[in-house]
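User: Before I run my own analysis I want an independent prediction to cross-check against. Here's the chain; please return only the structure tokens and, at the end, one sentence I can use as a sanity check.
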Amino acid sequence: MQFKKVMVTGGAGFVGAHLALLLKQAFPDISVWACDNLKRRGSELNLPRLVRGGVGFLHGDIRCPEDVASWPAFDLLVDCSAEPSVQAGLDGSPLPVIQNNLAGTVNCLEAARRHQAALLFISTSRVYPIGPVNALPFTEQSERFVWTAGTTCVGWSPRGLAEDFPLAGARSLYGATKLAAELLLQEYAFSYGLPVLINRCGLLTGPWQMGKVDQGVVALWVARHHFGSQLKYTGFGGQGKQVRDLLHVHDFFDLLLRQLEQLSAWDGRAYNVGGGPEISVSLRELTRLCQDATGQQIQIASDSSTSPVDVRIYLTDSSRVQRDFHWQPRRTPADIVADIASWIREHEAVVRPILCSPKPTNYRRPVVRDRENNDNPG
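Assistant: Structure tokens:
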């Protein structure tokens, strides 16, 4: 790899810590720094991991230009910092999400410009507008909603959304700030010749994700089963049939390795990155996987009310990134859930205060399943 000094923002978060550690493991001779403000609860648990892995830690905030100016010289910036909740700003001021996801990115861009460094930006599938996505044709099956063919739409097929799906429409403050940041990244690539690559990721997940209801739902779902805590199917009838595709963070790193070897693609282009239909689950299907992985069954409440920023189905059409980088995600939903469950068992005492509901349910019993006749979810 041609890069020797790598800065990872959001470096104590779920994605950032993984990428920093995996980069240092893959390339022991390079310098890797992780910068984080440690705002998100649980990020502090990654600090010992970073130290053990030989990653330098910088306590700082990308919203503060003075913090960013104090960074050592670097030739690659991996920007994983974000306010990641699609609900951000709905119940109060939009300024925190705007300052973090847009103003913070501007500070990162300026740092990259000063150092003439390449910039890899972790964006999101939520740049696509909510209304048009929810207007796509679908049917309701016993376990999930399913997109159906029959309607012609640019950038869409039942396999998922591609990069040319129309962007007109509202997408949430979170999605809007990430899309605005993408536009600035492309302008910096054009105006200053910075190598820039954008990955619009679907639902990234795996061990060490401190899941919440509005972000990190797979890890949250596994943890609540493990600890016998409360869960709720919310929105679209409250039956848990909404669908997302998943991507294990290690599969994402495998793509990153390939992208680092093909700098001709770093011209500001954006790629959709996700598991696609083959690596997708509804919440109902995720529940079964969690029961299998933990041996526990819990009662799940229902709330039919739907958030204005929620989408019924999101599947990623990753055809372009798979073709350009000869990459394919390998880990199935069952693999992902099993990996998270194993991590929680190993670190139960540490993660319980963060991932466990403060009021556990009394109903918690082993699940007995007929493996031979079980419908295999996902």
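Sanity check: The longest helix spans residues 95-115.
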